[in-house]
C-alpha cells in the first residue's frame, strides 16, 4: 500500500522539477466522461438527423449539370482564328485554337450577347409550401417581357398567380420597393422620387403592367410546359450580374487523347436551363466563327472588285486605241510578223501584270497593317501567297494591341508592363513586316527577270517600221491589261467561292440534352454527415473544454506518479450525516479503510521511534473542504478503539469543527489554554471511546499563528506525549497558512489529505517539493471521498461493491464493471 520513497542520491534538478507536475490532459478520465455522457451524443445525433432531413427535404436546392462536346478543325488559316504555328497568347503552347475558343466561351462579350438575346436576366422559380424551386423559361406557361426603355427594379420578386384563362394576378412584396432602379439601355442605376407600394393587379396576356418601379407584359408560351406550377415567381437581374453568374458556372476541358475535342459543361439550378444555354451558346459561337472567317474573304472580294472596275476602264480605253489603229492605219494585217517573239513577249508581260497586281495587294496589306485597321485586312491570296506564319503573327499583333488598350486603363505609359507589351508589339510587327519584305523582294526579282527577257525579245522587233511597232506596242498593252483583268477575276472568283463554301470550324459532336440526369449537388449525404458530425462534436467540445479547464485530482495512479509520496489508504464516500463513521458504522468499508490506514501508520513511523513517549500524527490538507477534520476524527477513533490512549487536538484555530460531532462545549479549548486562561485539565474532554480524549479549538483567537508557534504550545505537546500513546493534530490547511509546516517539525508522522475530484493539482506542488527537498519527513497521503462506482482507480479499498461490508449489501455494480467482470470470468475459465 505504501510505495517506496524515491531515495536516489543526488537527484538532478530536472527530476525535482518533475515532482508535483501532472499531465496536462487525462485521456482516461476524458474517455470515461464521454461514456458517462453518452445520452448527450445520442440526443445530438437524433437532432442532427432531423435537421439534415428537414434541410434535404425542404431547403436544399438541387444543382444540375449538362455538357456538350465539340470538335475544332484546323484546316484554315485566318487573321481572326489563331493558327498552330505560333503562340497566340503569351506563354500558351499546344492547342492554341482551343485556348482561343475557351476564352471566347468565357468572355464577357459572348455571354453578354446571350444574356440579352435570350433574356437571361429574367429568372423564373415556383414556390411550394416551404421550398422554392428554380424552373427554366420553357417550363413556365408564360414569359415576362420587360420594357427596356422603362426603369426596372431588380432583385424584386414578382409573383404571378394563374386566375383562369389568360389572366394572372401580379402580387408584389409587401415592402422592399426601391427608388434606385436599373436601366437595361444604359446598364446602370438611376434614382427616382419616392412612391407608394404598387397595388396587386390582375392582367391578361399581352397586357402591360405599369408601376413606378416596373413595366412588363406577359407573353404566352407557345409550347405546352411539361410541368404544372401553381405560381410563377419572376426576379429581374442586372446584365452584369447575370453575365457574372453564368461565367462562374461554365467549365471547359479538353479531351486528354485528342486536344481538338472540347467538352463544355454548365451548372445550374435547372437542367433544362443548362441544356438550352449550352446549345445556344455554341450555336452563336459557330455563327461568329464563320463570320470571322468570311470577313477577310469579303474584304478581299470588295478590294478585287474595285481593282477590276479600274482595270476594266483601262481595258476599254486600250481596246478603243487598238481598234483605232486597226481601222485608221490599216495595221491589223502586218506582213512577216514574228508571232513566236510576239507570243513570248505577251506571256512575259502577262506574268508581269499579274505580279504587279500582287504587289498592289501586298501594298494594301502593308498599309492596313501599319494603320492597325485589322478589320479591313484582305486575304494574302490576293497577293499571291499563303503564309501561316504571317497570318498567326497578324493575329498575335491584333491580340497584343487589344491587350495594350486594356492595360492602358490600369498602367501609366512609362510603366514596366506597358514597356514590355510595346516590346512584344515591336517583335510581332517586325515578324510580319519581315515576311512582307521577303515577298516584295521575291516579286521585284521576278519583275526584273521578266524585264530582261522582254528586252531580249524586243531586239527581234526593232526591224519593223515605226507604224507597225506602234501597233504592236498597243496590242501588247492591251494584252497586258487583259491579263491583269483576267488574273483579278480569277482571284475574285476564288474569294467568292470561299465565302460561299466556308463552314464554321466548330462541329458539335454531342449536343447538350436533358436525359433526366441526377443532380450533382448538393451532396446530401456529405451535408447530413457534416450536420450530424458537427452536432456530435458539440458535447465532445464541451467535455474537452471542461477537461482542459478541469485541474482536479481524479486519478490515484497519476497522483502517486506525480508526487512520489507514499499512499496510506483510500477512503470512500461518506454517506453518513456526521463524521463519526468509525463509531457509528464500524462494519462499513470506510471504517475498514481507516483500520488499514492505522496499520500503514507504523511503516510511516518505523524509523522515528522514541521509547517511552507517545507519537504525534499531524493531519493537514491544501484547503478547507478536503476532509482533513473527517480523517482526523476517524483516525483518532480507530486508534482509540485499538486500546491506545489517544487524544485528538483541534488546532485549526481559525475554523473550529470537532466539538459539534462529539457534542462537546467549545467554550474553552486550546486557544484558551495557549493564552493562559485555563489549565490543561479544563480543555481535555472525554468521549464515548474510553481511550479517546478530545481537546477542541476553543474560541477563535485574534492571533492563531502566534499561539500555534508559541513555546507554550510546544510544551503542551511534550506534556501530552507523556500521557498519551498517540496525539492526532487536526491542523490548518497548508495551502492557506504556513502554521502546519512549523507544527510538522514536532510531529512523528504527517498525513496529507487529498480529496477526489476536489483538490486542485497545482496545490500539491509545494508539499511535494518540500517532501523531496527533505524539509518534511514521514509524510503520507490519504485519498479521500473516492467514488467506487466509477469503476477505476488504484485498486485499494478491497471488497468495495461485493457485499463484504454491511453498507454494501444492496450495492449494484455499474454496467461497465458488470461487463468487465463477465468478460474476465469467460476468459479465466479453464
From TrEMBL:
Keywords: ATP-binding, Kinase, Membrane, Nucleotide-binding, Transferase, Transmembrane, Transmembrane helix, Tyrosine-protein kinase. Its EC number is 2.7.10.2. The keyword Nucleotide-binding applies. The chain crosses the membrane at residues 38-56. GO terms for molecular function: non-membrane spanning protein tyrosine kinase activity. Residues 615-757 form the AAA domain. It catalyses: L-tyrosyl-[protein] + ATP = O-phospho-L-tyrosyl-[protein] + ADP + H(+). Pfam families: AAA_31. It comes from the Bacteria. CDD domains: BY-kinase. InterPro entries: AAA_dom, Bact_polysacc_biosynth/exp, P-loop_NTPase, Wzc-like_C. Belongs to the CpsD/CapB family. This is non-specific protein-tyrosine kinase.
